[in-house]
Structure formats: structure tokens, C-alpha cells
Amino acid sequence: MDRRSFLRAGAFAVTTAAGGTFLIGCAPTTRNSASNATGDPNLPEVAFVTPFQHIINYIDVYVAVQEGFFEQEGLRVKPIGGTGTASSVSQVTAGQGMFGKAASVITAPLILDTGAEIITVGQNDQVSQYSVASDPAKPLNNPSDWQGKTIGVISKGGSTELLLDAMSVTAGLDPANVRKVVTGADVGSLEFLKRGEVDGFITFLGSETALRQRGVELNYLNTDKFAKVPGDSYFVKKSDAQSKGEEITGYLRACRKAYEFTEDKANLDKVLSAMSAFNTVEVSDKELARLKIEAQAKLCKPANGKYLSIDMPAWESALELMRKSGIVKDKNRPLSDIVTSEFVDKV
Fold this sequence. Notes:
By secondary structure, the protein is α/β, with parallel strands linked by helices. Helices cover 39% and strands 15% of the residues.
């Protein structure tokens, strides 16, 4: 779907969420004790709605559940596997979850152009998860290299297509001169390149890690090189930001502890166990899972070493770029309408 269709779909989900039923999957917590299987029942339960199922990208939450970091903050967190970024946004907006996760390229236009009452409170990805992969013999190292060519994106109208367009705009080029086709998010995207159907395709951290593990030689150009736009970040309803500050700060503190725990290679088995409780497939190949976990921790660690810190200069320049590229139509509302460091600064 295109961006407008995506936004309409999100709005429809919000409208129906209050009275409808979501088909969502959630996994049990992974505490070893049966009495703690769902955490302390006396603690308030809040839900985190993932953008997509249960994968290593959200490892901080699974580790925080298993290691009791949320309970230390007086919270009982239920991770809910979403069916797409739209579901994460719509369920949080409708009160079906307190925390969601999405990139700024999605949340900014939703907030500024459609009036979504959400705000980002913690930045997970400090570096883009996405890269343009190409044949090393015909490398794509600049947006000018793919003008008039075909590039594979993960989904039509989603983050990767918007980022690809923004890269062209940054280079002073017309995104319309690039043909985009959907090649998906897994290693199967490589087949499109092998068959000559695309000149390059966008990978995300998981598929890039898997391709590298298989020894596939590709040229990778991270999207940050031309369009530095903050990636997946935690968001909440603005009303919750006003009334549930302690819970938000506690959630972020627990997730930061989980990232620090995950970063320690001595904890690998426990981290794998935390992921396995929600999705055994993600850790069926232990070596690949290890590589993904290490890459995820590295990608999420900011220069100051404090996980979930918000890079405000990056958000400011990203908003300017999104306006310039047409991703965001609004020209006047302030950055503070889409992101705040109020809570993570208290961690």
C-alpha cells in the first residue's frame, strides 16, 4: 500500500479498535518459577505491542521480562506480537497497549499530518537497520547510481520505500526516476538480484546478518549515509505521557538494563532463552541468533553508551528532510510534538 493508504489503514484500525477484537498472539513470560509465570499479579500490567511478531529486534523486552527487570520497576509487561507497524500504532492509540515501537519516518507523518496522539519517548535504533544491497561488481554507493534502475523494497509504501525516496531527495534527485518493487524482508530477496529483476534491494539487520553468515558477498550502503532518520523507537499515547510518567521511566529503565545484560556475551544463553520463550524459530540456529543479538546490541548503543537515549539533533535534521521529501506535509509544528527526552533523561 502507498503512504496514504497506510495512514488510512492505521486510522481505520484506531476507529475499530475500541469496539473490535484484535487477532493478536502473545507468549507467556519466561520466569522459571511457576509462581512467577506471569509476574507478580499485584503489579499493574501494561502491554508492549511489537511492530511485527516476536523477533530479536525486541530482545530488550524479552530479557527484561525473563530477568525480572520490569518487576523491579513495579511493572508487569506483556509483549504482544503485532501484525505490522500500523497495528502497533493503532492498538496503542486505542488503549490496547501502552507501548509501541515504530520509526520516525512512520510516526512523524502520523502525528503531524493525521493528528495521531502519540509521542516518542525512547530511541532504540541509533543506526539504521536498513542498507541497499547490490552486486559488488556493480555497486550502488550513491542515489545517482540507481536513477533509472529498479530497487527492491521490503514493502510498498513502508519505511524502506520512504527512506529510499529520502535518499534520492538528499542527493538532489527525483525519487520518481527509481522503480520500486517488493522483494520482502528475508534472504529470499537475493534471488531477485540473481535473476536480474532488480539492480539492488534493501536489507534489514536480520537478513543482512543471515546473508553475511552464509558467505554471500554483497555491497551494502546503509541508508543513514544519505538519509539519517531515527529508526525504531518506543512511543506512547500523549495522554499516558502526561499521567503515567513513572511507569514510562520505569519501562525505559528496565529496557536499558536488558540491553546492558544482552551486551555481555557471558549472558548469551540466558538471552537466547528469553527469545526462545516467545519464538523458538528465532533461535533455532544458535550461531545466527548470536550474530543477530550482537548486531542488535551494537546498532542500539548510542555514542554516550546510554541505551534508549534520544539523538535530538538527528530528529531535528530528520524532520527537515521528511518535510523536504514530502513524507511530512506539515511545515509548522515543533519537534516537541513528535518526540521527548523527558522520561529517558530520568533513567
